[in-house]
Amino acid sequence: MDCPKTKGIEAAVACLPDDALEGILSRLRAKPLLRFKCVSKAWCGLIADRLRCRKFPQNLVGFFIGGRGENFGDFIDLSGRPVPLVDPSFSFLTNSQEIEKIVLLGSCNGLVLFGHRRVSDNYDTLGYIVCNPTTEQWVTVPSSGWTPWEDSEDEENQDDVQAERLDTYLIFDPAVSPHFQLVQLLSLDLYDLEEVHTFSSVTGAWRQHEGIHGQAWKQWGSMAMAISVACAFNGMLHMSIHFHDSNLNMIVAVDGEGEPFKTMHWPDDSGRVVFFVGQSQGHLHCMSVHTGDLVQMTQLSIWVLEDYDAEKWVLIEGQCELLPAVWKNEMPLP
């Protein structure tokens, strides 16, 4: 026999407008949100829908700043909660007996990528950890086979390490798939791309891209380039690439299989340096700087890709002249 009180609650829930319901659920943390799947079939379907990232408004509740390597940085909590949304020390990882040393490499849509090595491991056995700092769930990713460790004490390999560069990027778009991918790029002498490896959480295995010297990559000539910054957008890795021979910047999209998919010309041809690529409000954003000399950055420009297919870039608010003032304040007075 149904309880009248239960029927009253179900009736009240059923009367909630979809917009109001989505607004309420979007403010809940992951663990309480999962418990609300038991309220009704409608709620269960709404919460479990992997496209909910598009349905719910994406409010910024916090961000990490200043973190790189073994320094995870500071978490700036914008939610106003007495307890931070996430543990900025990642103690759920660092206190685990399975983990001995981790290095922050990057993040993508709520997931964080760490490089991982046990103290007893050999030089070439660096693996990875992908975690959700909100739910404190994490998985390990094995080594791809060639992954140098910057702090290696092997003096014989120090020259080779400094001449090679390894970048590993995380691709995760919950609006497209619940699975993640890793793209690993190995460059020689900081310029020439030598190998591309990809990892899929579906197969749980690494794959070496066989077409690294094929037509898709040959369009860049001798591969004389420097990969500076990158981010995941539209399910692909978007990299800022600088061609040192022509002094040109381009944005190159690489899919999860390590295949170049799209090449976009950078709209600012004034020789500025692209130092940031990211996404906001469903659009790709880039920042470029003009350097007055080898030390000081004198101008900052922010660009947004309003039309992805047409490659329509728009400059936001002109050029920012704030950086010289920052440098001036940091310099000692005469």
TrEMBL record:
Indicate the segments forming the F-box domain, all copies.
10-60
CDD domains in UniProt:
F-box_AtFBW1-like
Which InterPro entries does this one have? At3g26010-like (IPR055290), F-box-assoc_dom_typ3 (IPR013187), F-box-like_dom_sf (IPR036047), F-box_dom (IPR001810)
Name of this protein: F-box domain-containing protein
Q: Which organism is it from?
A: Setaria viridis (Green bristlegrass)
